[in-house]
């Protein structure tokens, strides 16, 4: 039986653009170019390497997002994924991490999976909690923040690197894993891959397809919300301390007047 690998990816605002909040204090995704989250490219790469080493495997990329999120899926397909699933619904606007994990879980149950691979976090939110939430909803093991990943004999194994030590972890399939940016550089799509991606299937689902009510997601169903946002103040000129024998005292007095969080 074919190994069913699903990679969860996210369409995010370009970090080099002018990112800001919309009037409802959600991330403005209309006035800035978007792309496949860089951290998710590592997840796609690891899934493709597992596929290449397996006798029979298929890689599906899954995203939850607006219409333009198809661009992120096409990037993953051009890298070598086989097909894509796009959950798109106007009622998803403002969905937080908890709601996103619900939608992803329902989508995964709909399409079927053996291994779910995620990036360590998204570059627009940076929370890094969705893989764990997703595993809990699915009732399967989670093996997160891996810098090395392998699948064999019905198990996923990997290495998690910490500040002082590394851990060797394993879990029986089905499972959810997340990989870090130390897992290996993601491949660049070839011209052949880009052309082939145009013909690969992209299935579109909405909330009704997944049996999810509108009030379970979106801003109304969110457990976390941004209450207030302000522009970062412009940088000001620093204070120059000329050391004429009392530089240490000047520095101590300066620090004593600062407010630290």
Find the structural class using helix and strand composition: alpha/beta
Strand content: 15-25%
- Rg is 22 Å
DSSP strand count: 12
Name the strands of the widest sheet in spatial order.
7-11-6-1-4-5-12
Give me the number of helical elements.
8
The CATH topology label is Rossmann fold
- Outline, from the CA principal axes? globular
User: How many structurally independent domains?
Assistant: 1
N to C succession of SSEs: EEEHEHEHEHEEEEEHEHHH
User: What is the architecture at the second tier of CATH?
Assistant: 3-Layer(aba) Sandwich
Low-pLDDT sequence parts: none
Question: Secondary structure elements and their pairing?
Answer:
Elements: E1 3-8, E2 11-13, E3 34-36, H1 38-53, E4 57-64, H2 70-79, E5 83-87, H3 97-111, E6 115-119, H4 130-138, E7 142-146, E8 148-152, E9 155-161, E10 166-172, E11 175-179, H5 191-197, E12 202-205, H6 207-210, H7 218-221, H8 247-256
Parallel strand pairs: 1-4, 1-6, 4-5, 5-12, 6-11, 7-11
Antiparallel strand pairs: 2-3, 8-9, 9-10
Helix pairs in contact: 2-5, 3-4
């Amino acid at each position: 039986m074919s190994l069913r690998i699903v990679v969860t990816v996210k369409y995010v605002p370009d970090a080099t653009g002018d990112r800001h909040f919309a009037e409802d204090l959600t991330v403005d995704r209309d006035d800035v170019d978007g792309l496949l989250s860089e951290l998710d490219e590592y997840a796609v790469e690891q899934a493709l390497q597992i596929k290449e080493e397996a006798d029979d495997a298929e890689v599906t990329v899954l995203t939850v997002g607006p219409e333009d999120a198809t661009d992120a899926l096409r990037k993953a397909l051009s890298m070598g994924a086989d097909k894509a699933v796009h959950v798109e619904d106007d009622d998803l606007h403002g969905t937080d991490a908890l709601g996103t994990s619900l939608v992803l879980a329902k989508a995964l149950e709909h399409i079927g999976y053996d291994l779910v691979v995620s990036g360590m976090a998204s570059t627009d939110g940076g929370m890094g909690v969705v893989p764990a939430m997703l595993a809990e909803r699915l009732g399967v093991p989670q093996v997160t923040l891996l810098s090395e990943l392998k699948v064999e004999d019905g198990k996923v194994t990997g290495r998690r690197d910490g500040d002082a030590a590394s851990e060797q972890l394993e879990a029986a399939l089905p499972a959810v894993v997340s990989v870090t940016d130390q897992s290996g550089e993601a491949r660049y799509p070839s011209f052949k891959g880009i052309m082939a991606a145009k013909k690969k299937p992209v299935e579109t689902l909405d909330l009704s397809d997944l049996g999810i009510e509108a009030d379970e997601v979106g801003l109304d169903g969110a457990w976390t919300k941004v209450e207030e946002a302000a522009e970062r103040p412009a940088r000001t000129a620093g204070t120059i301390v000329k050391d004429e024998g009392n530089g240490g005292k000047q520095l101590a007095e300066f620090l004593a007047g600062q407010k630290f969080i």
